[in-house]
Write a structure and sequence with these properties.
Blueprint (H helix, E strand, L loop, with lengths): L1 E4 L1 H9 L4 H10 L4 E5 H14 L4 H14 L1 E3 L18 H9 L4 E3 L3 H4 L7 E3 L1 H5 L3
């Protein structure tokens, strides 16, 4: 499966290697799956760590240096996708656009705007749900 991992899952994974988001991240990044992120994910992670977890910036750098060895960094198309209107938070729409353009099967997220969107393609799933997918 092609899996685009949303920022909130990446942050949780970077902060706690014992949690469900980390387990889902590892599954998404491991064969037979193909993990992906977009530039907005990286920018958001850096911004949030600078603001909320400034003492953990070294951990973020270490996490990203390893993650970017295994995850594909996919571009965000400039042209909007029709499905984007189903996402309430306009800031999240580019993440969906990247997932669709990268032909993601799954968007792995904990974001309610995605989870409550009703989108079917890509499948929107939480880390816990993703771990139960065969």
């Amino acid at each position: 499966m092609r899996v685009l991992i949303d920022t909130n899952v990446l942050i949780s994974a970077a902060l706690n290697a014992d949690g469900v988001p980390y387990q889902a991240y590892v599954k998404a990044a491991s064969y037979p799956n193909h993990g992906m992120i977009c530039e907005q994910n990286v920018d958001e992670m850096k911004r949030i760590f600078n603001k909320k977890f400034p003492k953990r910036l070294a951990a973020l750098d270490k996490f990203l240096s390893i993650a970017l060895l295994t995850l594909e960094l996919v571009p965000i198309p400039t042209d909007e996708n029709v499905s984007e209107s189903q996402i309430r938070d306009a800031d999240d729409r580019s993440i969906l656009r990247a997932a669709i353009a990268a032909k993601a099967d799954v968007l792995l997220t904990g974001d309610k705007d995605f989870l409550e969107s009703g989108l079917k393609n890509p499948m929107i799933t939480t880390p816990a749900e993703f771990l139960n997918i065969e």
